[in-house]
Specification:
Helix content: 25-40%
Radius of gyration: 18 Å
Number of strands: 7
Shape: globular
Distance between the termini: 17 Å
CATH architecture of one domain: 3-Layer(aba) Sandwich
Largest sheet: 7 strands, mixed
GO biological process, one term: riboflavin biosynthetic process
GO molecular function, one term: GTP cyclohydrolase II activity
Strand order of the largest sheet: 1-2-3-5-4-6-7
InterPro entries: GTP_cyclohydro_II, RibA, RibA-like_sf
Structural class: alpha/beta
Protein name: GTP cyclohydrolase-2
CATH class of one domain: Alpha Beta
CATH superfamily of one domain: GTP cyclohydrolase II
Pathway: Cofactor biosynthesis; riboflavin biosynthesis; 5-amino-6-(D-ribitylamino)uracil from GTP: step 1/4
CATH topology of one domain: Rossmann fold
Mean pLDDT: 88
């Protein structure tokens, strides 16, 4: 029998009122140094933030005037070594990161929060590779995590919200297909004005993976029927 595949987000509800969230501002992060970061997409500033709760440094890659700015284009991006660095086709992470930088550069203002410690939706690189092996044996991405004793998604996003607050962002246009990220920012007192779809075309290696994210994890993906394999053909999910 396959494991139960009900998805429950790891993030716990925070105080409803922005005032209550403000009382605990920067409880998780401490700002570190910043430097100029010229990229193929344009010039940015990169700032490090130490996460007191995990001992990990997250990164904010940003450009334009942010203090008091509204409807700032934001991408909260979870670290993915295989996709972001090595160009893995098993996920859509690398193309999503590059697209976010491109969109922000074109807009002239925005932030990418690069959440380190989120590898494999929070299970780490070793367990992520074990999950890949299980996926090659027929489990989907949710079932593989559960088979290894993990939640479908173990990530938390309090630090991302605090980083945006530290940068002075007043409200956000969030580039994401994941409603859990939007909810997590709102629970920390940030105003999310709108969600900006941030979808990458599927390829033969990740089509079933993306379909699973839509069907089991609630991701808002408009996958074309041609890109989504039938359930009977999903040997690699």
């Amino acid at each position: 029998m396959k494991p139960e595949t009900t998805f429950r987000p790891a993030s716990e509800p925070a105080a409803d009122a922005p005032e209550a969230a403000a009382e605990h501002a920067h409880a998780h992060v401490r700002r570190g140094p910043s430097a100029r970061l010229p990229t193929e997409h344009g010039d940015f500033t990169i700032s490090s933030y130490f996460d007191r709760s995990t001992g990990i440094e997250h990164m904010a890659i940003h450009c334009g005037e942010l203090a008091g700015a509204r409807e700032v284009l934001v991408r909260v991006h979870s670290e993915c070594l295989t996709g972001d660095i090595f160009g893995s086709l098993r996920c859509d992470c690398g193309p999503q990161l590059r697209l976010a930088l491109q969109r922000i550069s074109q807009a002239g203002r925005g932030v990418v929060i690069y959440m380190r410690g989120h590898e494999g939706r929070g299970i780490g690189i070793d367990e992520k590779l074990r999950a890949y092996t299980l996926q090659d044996q027929g489990l989907d991405t949710v079932e593989a995590n559960l088979a290894l004793g993990h939640a479908p998604d173990s990530r938390r996003f309090e630090a991302a919200a605090e980083i945006l607050q530290d940068l002075g962002v007043a409200s956000v246009s969030l580039m994401s297909n994941n409603p859990i990220k939007l909810l997590a920012l709102q629970q920390q007192g940030l105003e999310v004005v709108q969600r900006e779809p941030h979808e990458i075309d599927a390829n033969p290696e990740n089509a079933a993976y993306l379909a699973t994210k839509r069907e089991k994890m609630g991701h808002l993906l408009a996958l074309s029927s041609a890109a989504v394999p039938s359930p009977a053909s999903r040997s690699r999910r």
